[in-house]
Amino acid sequence: MARKGERRGRAPCCEKEGLKRGAWTAAEDKKLVAYITKHGHTNWRNLPKQAGLLRCGKSCRLRWINYLRPDVKRGNFTKEEEDTIISLHSELGNKWSKIASYLPGRTDNEIKNLWHTHIKKKIARGSSSKQESYEIKPNQSIVLHEYNSTEELSSSQTLWREELNEGVMDFMMIPEEDEEYYNGLVYLESEIDLWGQMN
DNA sequence: AAACGCAACAACCGCAATTTG
DNA sequence: GCAAATTGCGGTTGTTGCGTT
User: Is A61's CB less than 7 Å from nucleic acid strand C?
Assistant: First the structure.
């Protein structure tokens, strides 16, 4: 991409001179959305100049991907989303963008924030006390300490079991529509054990 | 009401990976 | 194949708002 007459050597991540930093204003958001809606985003580096924004391309990209994209989902994470994140994190580690790809409308940044503010603590709580570990009852019920409740399993219920920390297991009932996905994971990741059909 | 501490989240930074000439 | 440009990712920091003292 080196063009004749352009500066050689690695460019700084953003040109600091005269460029705005910090929180985005509504007017800036509007400009960015209007520009991308009309022209798309083929070149983030040139985009701010062309859109009339005093921002670096990186800042524009981040703002668009995390907040302004029309398909970005806002609001609290559901229990199912949290469980999916925990499960995927145990498999993939801190691959936030990879994890985000399994959660439509959620961004890597959002998931990363959730992990550091909520889930990490939740798991730490789970490993800190034996009283918060999980157990299986012989009558095909599971005790969910997270909710202080006992759940009966239907005859065809699929249960996902996962080790969160040493000796601490997490259990999750899989909605019928997600069964195929979780069954697929068994072949990808042998350490994670599908509890199986309970009948 | 003010000061303080903490949690939540938006945004930045540095670097690796990928693309391009 | 190489070097430079660009993009994307993950770690980290800064800001804000809320609850507590």
Answer: yes
Nucleotide whose C1' lies closest to the alpha carbon of residue A1 = B20
The order of strands in the sheet holding A158-165 is: A168-174, A158-165, A193-197
> Could you check: is the Cβ of residue A8 within 7 Å of any atom of nucleic acid strand C?
yes
Instruction: For the domain made up of A79-197, give the CATH fold.
Output: Arc Repressor Mutant, subunit A (1.10.10)
A3: Cβ under 7 Å from strand B? yes
Convert the pLDDT of each residue in A155-193 to its tens digit. 444 444 444 443 444 445 545 545 554 454 433 333 333
Q: CA A18 to CA A178: how far, in whole Å? A: 50
User: How many degrees, rounded to 5, is the angle at CA A127 between CA A145 and CA A164?
Assistant: 85
- Taking the CA of residue A8 as centre, how many other CA atoms within 13 Å lie in the half-sphere pointing to its CB? 1
pLDDT in tens, A40-74: 888 898 899 889 998 999 999 999 999 998 888 87
A114 touches strand B (CB under 7 A): yes
- Cα-trace Rg, chain A: 23
Q: Which of A107-111, A137-141, A177-181 has the lowest mean pLDDT?
A: A137-141
Nucleotides in C strand less than 7 A from protein CB: 3-12, 15-16
Domain spans of chain A, in order of start: 26-68, 79-197
